[in-house]
Amino acid sequence: LLLSGSSGDSARPVSSDSLMTSAELTHGGALPLAPRGRALYKALCFCALALQGAVLDFYLIAFTDLSWCSWIATDLVVLSGWAIFFIKNARNKRERACGFHQKSCARGAGLGEFTYAYLAWLIYVIACTPKMVLVVETSILELLTLKVPCGVTGFKCAVLLCAPLLFCLICAVTEDGTGATRHRAHASFLSTCLDLLDSFTLVELLLRNELHAPPLRYAVLCAFFLALFAPVIWLHELTVHELTCHSLCARFFTGLLVNAPLLAVRCFQVYAHGAPVSVFLFKNVFMLACRALELVEQCVSARGARALAASNPGHFSHGVSENDMCPHGYVNTLAVNQL
């Protein structure tokens, strides 16, 4: 491969040690995560999926007359969906490294590290939610206390496997260990964990049968499963290249539907039953205010950016694009250097 400097300089060979892939250029020269590390996290994803599915299937098969084939088939569909996701994600990264998807990226179709990740999590939530609801809202919960070792504690541990599963998913698809996308993903992950912990404190009251009113029970369950659904929103945001007002509104309403019911239930518990004020009550108020301010700020910024782009049409850049590192990309580099 020959690279030209200025117009008067002669072409000179470049050693393979000095070449950088387009993925490394995209991340500012940061070293990518080791493939073995990503493979380990992928294996942990499948282990967590299989373990959680097996535990919940055992509860449903042992204490109901429902067909065991349907529950096992559901787990196989989820595992197959995640396997397809990892395959398509890896192929997308290889093609993106050679610039085959530049046209799609220009139209705003997200083709980054987290491509298709939100679909994988959506499949998981759709398959996992009915199992948890059946256990909580039927007599299975009482039978677990009487006939199963660890009882309700085992069910709690199985439910909370969703948090390490989400962490393994993030690490399994992240290429750059120090990139901005990874930091955004971990910040969103911590926010989701806080919402899950917040809602699960009230789910524990439900498991101890201390929430008797059906509206309170349904509000707590809806808040927990909406918190479990929230990663679909921010994983999609990590996939796209441009943050729009629609995605910001979706994130705001997700936070609203999680924190508002929990705040209402906690206020009812404090004023009607004299329960102590929980620190999570202040968290609900704080997060609602933060989400509202974030929505206003980001929507104003997005509209300002679009107005600026409309007033200043696209200009020609003399920089080297990602295509320049693809096969025959040196032709573009020579053309730029001749200008």
TrEMBL record:
Highest taxon in the source lineage: Eukaryota
UniProt keyword annotations, A-Z: Membrane, Transmembrane, Transmembrane helix
Entry-linked InterPro entries: CECR6, CECR6/TMEM121
User: Is the Membrane keyword given for this protein?
Assistant: yes
Where exactly are the transmembrane stretches of this chain?
68-87, 116-133, 153-173, 218-236, 248-271
Q: Name one Pfam family in it.
A: CECR6_TMEM121
Its family remark reads:
Belongs to the TMEM121 family.
Q: What is this protein called?
A: Uncharacterized protein
- Organism, scientific name: Periophthalmus magnuspinnatus
